[in-house]
Amino acid sequence: MYLSRQLRLLPRANIARSLSSSGAHYTTAAPAEDAPIEIPNRIERSPTDLLQALAGTVARDHTAPHYKYHDDPFLIPMSNAAKRTYAMSKESGRKAAKWIKEEHRELFMHQEAQPAIEKFAPSMVYTEDSVVDESSLGQLISQGELKDAVLVYNLLEQKGNPISPDLKQSLLELVCFHNNQEPLPEEYIEERWFLQNNRRRERSGKTWKDGDLAEKLYSEIEPKTPQSYASLIRGMAKYLQCERAYALLQEAGEKQVQLDTNTFNSVIEIVSFLKDTAEQRWQLCTELLNEMSQQKLRPNLGTLNAVLQCISTFGNLKLARTAALQALPEFKQLGVSPSLGTYYYLLIIFCRERGPVSHVIVDILNDISGKEFQIQHPKDTYFFATAMDVCRNHLHDKSLAKKVDELLHTGKNYDLIGDSFKESIYYRNYLALLCQTELIDDFMMSYDRLVPNIYIPEPGIMEEILRAIEINGGVEYVPRIWSDMVVFDHTHRESLLLYVLRILVDNKPNPDSAAQAQLPEQAAKVALDMYERVEEAIKRLRKVSFTGQMLGDILTLLVRGGSYEKATEVFAHIDKNQHRIPGTPSLNALLEFVDASVQEKAPSQALLALQYAVENNIDSRALAKRIHEGFTLNETHLSKLKSLVGESFLDK
Amino acid sequence: MSSALTRLWERLPLKKQTAQSGIRVFSNQEPQQNQEVEDDEEFRVLSLRTVKQQFQRRQQVRRDPITPPRTNRMAVDQDWTAVWPGPRSFHPASVPLPLRQGFTERGAAAPSKFANAELMKIPNFLHLTPPAIRQQCEAIKKFCTPWPKGLETEAKWQRHFPLEVITTDYCQSLPTIRNPEARRVTISLKLSDLKFDAHARDKFLRLVGDRYDKDTDIVTFVTDRCPQKKQNYDYALYLLTVCYHESFVTEPWEATKSEADMEVYLFERNQSKLSAERILNWNAKEGAPKVAPSKSFAVCVEQLINEGENEYNLGKYKEEVKKMLSIA
Question: What residues form the membrane-spanning segments (chain A) (predicted)?
């Protein structure tokens, strides 16, 4: 329990006023010689302002996971799947609690909290026989309880209770907004975060329920009000019942019904579904805008974004550009300030795949860098992912990408990243661009900052990173990357394994440089780890299998790292499973193995290698020569050598 | 095996006498043979129906590899306030300090921070490092106003703001945000800030009783009889006002105060004044101005009687009497 004690001092004037009411002979007047005091006015603040100011001092800790996860090595998610699983299981616990609350409602009827917390009480249950009236319907609508509201409405209808037109209108709005489908409750943030773009895929077709409650309600409202028109048009447009929405708009126009701006916006958004070619779309769009101006409607941000959305669907790039450039200054004149969604549309209008290169993003960034944005339009969350995509794939510009990243981390702009899907697209593009354009040391710094708590690279990006390491000769980073690959579960990708080995084998470590002094041992460890993992994987999942090339590289690395015994083990594996392993190790791998055998004085191993080479049709002369020169062989070994490469070899 | 069979027999119910004896015979007669069988092979199960044997391969649970503690990855110059922003129990993988705590045998090192309950039990102040406090102060500075001009010293603000009001807010982890203690209001002021005459002061002190502290000269009202803070505050100010005004009212019965009711000895209204005057005006002519006893004599007599007889007071009294009577 914390207590804060307030000490307030009352000024003399106050007391004097309260004490001096009855007589003047004992007042306590302040001495007159005092200088006047100036007390500054209180700075107004909301109840949460202080907390927000304090929260503003906390920066993101890159070594820690997101705060929704437990900060404990056992519970920190280390792959994208784990991130999703952990967050969703936490939320499913919340759901279970909610289910218990509803299922055993009798246990939660007490209300200890003061003031009472409505969310902690079980919700009202409405059934066929519950006694309802208009006020309960109104309350349900204001709470946004769609299912119960519809049930109560039906009950009222059955009993023949009159329902006021206002209430009907608000129910119509609720039903149109949700298309008479229970929405995902607001408190499930994780579910929303990981919903990805399922929702968008759903929305590609018409989902409006024809002849459902919304239209019934609409038909009941007589006479038709502008609001009822507006809500039905907006609902139809939102759920892509395009033709009827447009027809209804025209009907309203004929009947001289005064509609509002947002209704026109919703119809402009679906122009692309109404007309097929760019010219027709643009014509319809301008018609609608003209109609708005006739009705003296002031366009807003939604209008701007709807127009740009319409333009972005034009196949004709030239028309799209001119139309966009025409629309923008006009809206600027009207005093509509663009949101991030507007810039998103501009980016997809100007920067198209296979289109000419456009530098519109430079101007956009000059315009908005350092600004803090609030969400104003649903598409605002698409900006950052798209901007980074443009930076990487369209312009391939590192400095622009850094500017975008800076904008993302300005103020509360990170709230506009969208969901996990968009966030991962953003970082995928960012990291891929950085690894292609930055020096390897700089890149590894940003890699350390982002991976794994903010972003976990997919196998494709891992390959890009490995490529960057190979090109820049940063072989000392490979062990680090390998341990990350193990953690992120990339070890069953054969191409990645081969890539790691190739980098390690091709870049022979320079023993003089301090950074690479440890490298041979580390590389041997990586190779051994990989060998064991692949062996394990073969036993279990068979997702990945050995190839001769891979085993040869592992052999080389083990030999270089000085773990000869392990190398002989690996070689024995190669030798024993010749028929199962596709391909053979390279000659260089065998040569290095033989050299190591010479050093370790193990002629039988060397002869085994020679035998393997002969059997697999590898050029064995160099091997034989090394063996002959390196060892003073005894009779049995010599005869073996002879039998393998022939008498003639020794005579030379 | 024989022991196993005996145990089996013990467990059989009494009804099955025959079966019992049979087993018993078996177990007694052929222990040797049994032993051999046991050595040869395992106990064979009599399976009347051929049941398809189900080999349940135990699924090995694949565990994600556990990462090393994140302290390994922390930079030396990291922003600690971001790592540990709020109060939290100790976690070894997040605190990059080689802490040790706990009791061990003599000579051994104290247990390290990993899996150390001692470190988790104690409250830590890792979130209240000086840089964190500095940052937070900077952040909330924008809500602070400058100190009022003209109130620089304590004497100054005490003169301008004589009345102190103390209230308390409670923040607790309970379902209710209310705390009954929060209704209490304390107001206090120096008595010297109020203006009294002798009667009013006396009456005021009688009215407030032990709410007046003679040593510090402070009157304190504590009110808690109303359910809300605001009401209690209003009530406290009301009490102060009423007491003050009441102290200036002289009731008719106050005039009937006799010498026996006096709480202190006053020279002015006592016999010793008359006696002293009579002595001083001995043989004075009619109409001549009366000689009054000196002020210091009055004080001295009051002191002698109010404080009691002690060496100092008696000595002083002697001096004064000598002075008054001009006995050098």
Answer: none
Q: Judge: A73–B66 Cβ closer than 8 Å, yes or no.
A: yes
Structure tokens at A54: 């304090």
Residues with Cβ within 8 Å of residue A41, at least 6 apart in sequence: B145
> Predicted ipTM?
0.77
User: Do B169 and B123 belong together in one domain?
Assistant: no
Q: Are A290 and A255 in the same domain?
A: no
Tens digit of each residue's pLDDT (9 = 90 or more) over B253-291: 988 888 888 878 888 888 888 888 888 888 777 777 777
**Shared domain check, B222 and B160:** yes
Identify the domain boundary among A231, A259, A287. Answer: A259
pLDDT at A649: 66
Domains contained in chain A, number: 3
Question: What's the CA angle centered on A518, arms A513 and A519, to 5 degrees?
Answer: 85
Closest CA to A185 of A263, A91, A277, A74: A91
What pLDDT band is residue B114 in, cutting at 50, 70 and 90?
Answer: very high
pLDDT at B22: 39
The pLDDT, as a whole number, for residue A14 is 61
Residue reference for tokens 């129910």: A171
In this structure, are residues A175 and A139 in contact, taking their beta carbons and an 8 Å threshold?
no
In which residue ranges of chain A is pLDDT below 50? 20-32
Per-residue confidence at B91, pLDDT binned at 50, 70, 90? very high
In a mutagenesis test of the B interface, which of A58, A85, A114, A119 is the best target, namely the one with the most B β-carbons within 10 Å? A58
Question: Contacts of residue A4 in chain B, CB cutoff 8 Å?
Answer: 168-169, 171
What is the span of the domain harbouring residue A650? 599-652
Asked whether A43 and A36 are in contact (CB, 8 A), the reply is no
b/e map A318-352, b = 16+ CB within 10 Å: ebbbebbeebbeebeeeebebbbbbbbbbbbbbbe
What pLDDT does B236 receive? 96
**pTM of the shown model:** 0.79
**pLDDT class of B41 with cuts at 50, 70, 90:** low
Q: Are A75 and A66 in contact (CB under 8 A)?
A: no
* Claim to verify: residue B244 and residue B266 sit in the same structural domain: no
Residues of chain B found within 8 Å of residue A1, distances taken between Cβ atoms = 170-173
**Which residue out of B57, B59, B80, B136 would a mutagenesis test of the A interface target, given it has the greatest number of A Cβ atoms within 10 Å?**
B136
Q: Do B145 and A43 count as a contact with CB atoms less than 8 A apart?
A: yes
Range of the domain at B266: 262-325
Contact of A36 with B188, CB cutoff 8 Å: no
Between B25 and A581, the more confident residue is A581
Q: What is residue A133's three-state secondary structure?
A: coil
Length of chain A: 652
